[in-house]
Amino acid sequence: MLSRRLIRIKAFKTLFAYEGAHADNALSAQKTLVESCDKVKDLYYFMLNITSSLVRVAEDKIAAGMKKLKPTEEDLHPNLKFVHNRFAALLSDDPEFGRYCLRRGLQWGEYEPFVRHVYNSMVTKDYYRDYMASAEDSFEADCRLFSCIFQDEFEDNEELESLLEDLSLLWVDDLAFALNAIIAGIGETARKRHIVHPSTFLKEDDKDFALRLLAESIARYDEYFALLSEHLDNWKSDRVVLTDATLIILGITEAVVFPTIPVKVTINEYVEIAKYYSTPNSRVFVNGILDRIIQEKIASGEVVKQGRGLYEQ
């Protein structure tokens, strides 16, 4: 599930917090990193679980319409296409999905006002109206509707961000990734016709990568910070922001410890992370210092890559 970039971001945040707190328990930091990665999977399931809650809101509205003293023709003969959505039903009936959400407390019951706001928003959208009016009645169309809902209703949603902040400090930053993963998962479900259950890590060696990257960076932090300080031109090490130092140390560690990851990939990844998590000038600073140090370590033989093209800049 997690991309390598997101793993690097998680490692960066964990190392940043570890060094900022002057902690001294590397195993505890590794546990924190794994929990942070697992939280992305929790967010994936939590957001996906809103599907059945939206259907229940629609069912409640239909029931309320039929109980009116003077129901309209639409109240008496409602369009049931959404409440009979087969993707929502498949998800609701999936025992593994239900057990996971129940065990981890990933329920929307106490957030009904937000669910209703989402429902009231989506029913005004063209994608929903087109779905309800379409003569197409297929599992694929039912899946496409929920892809549209996850694409349209949750990004840049301040109410949702506030709700997620109360549940987990990690979730707001992970939301965009989780939504994209959900949309991809719905597409895969449409093709395979069963619910796809993601693992936290795409491959087992991704977990090993995360844990080793963090552990080696902690072990080498003082050594590489001193090395970083030696490469500063007219700049004191105490003026280097901790975010930049953390990214550079992670980059040096990755270049040294992982022989099959190309140098270009390592540098580009930490430069891209610097764009979002550090100062406006950090991208150039991280790129310059990281490139110089890695080139020196290539020349000294400390950075050794296995395979053609892995040294290219």
Topology readout:
Blueprint (H helix, E strand, L loop, with lengths): L3 H17 L5 H23 L1 H17 L6 H4 L9 H8 L1 H10 L7 H11 L3 H8 L5 H14 L5 H10 L3 H22 L11 H27 L11 H16 L5 H15 L4 H19 L13
Helix pairs in contact: 1-2, 1-12, 1-13, 2-11, 2-12, 3-7, 9-11, 12-13, 13-14, 13-15, 14-15
Model description:
This protein is mostly helical and 313 residues long. It has helices at residues 4-20, 26-48, 50-66, 73-76, 86-93, 95-104, 112-122, 126-133, 139-152, 158-167, 171-192, 204-230, 242-257, 263-277, 282-300. The two termini are 28 Å apart.
Features:
single chain; 313 residues
Major beta sheet summary: none
Order of helices and strands: HHHHHHHHHHHHHHH
Rounded mean pLDDT score: 94
Which radius of gyration do the C-alpha atoms yield?
Answer: 24 Å
* Straight-line N-to-C gap: 28 Å
Number of helices: 15
* Beta-strand residue percentage: under 5%
Shape: elongated
Q: What structural class results from the helix and strand content?
A: mainly alpha
Oligomer: single chain
Number of strands: 0
Estimated helix fraction = over 70%
Low-pLDDT ranges: none
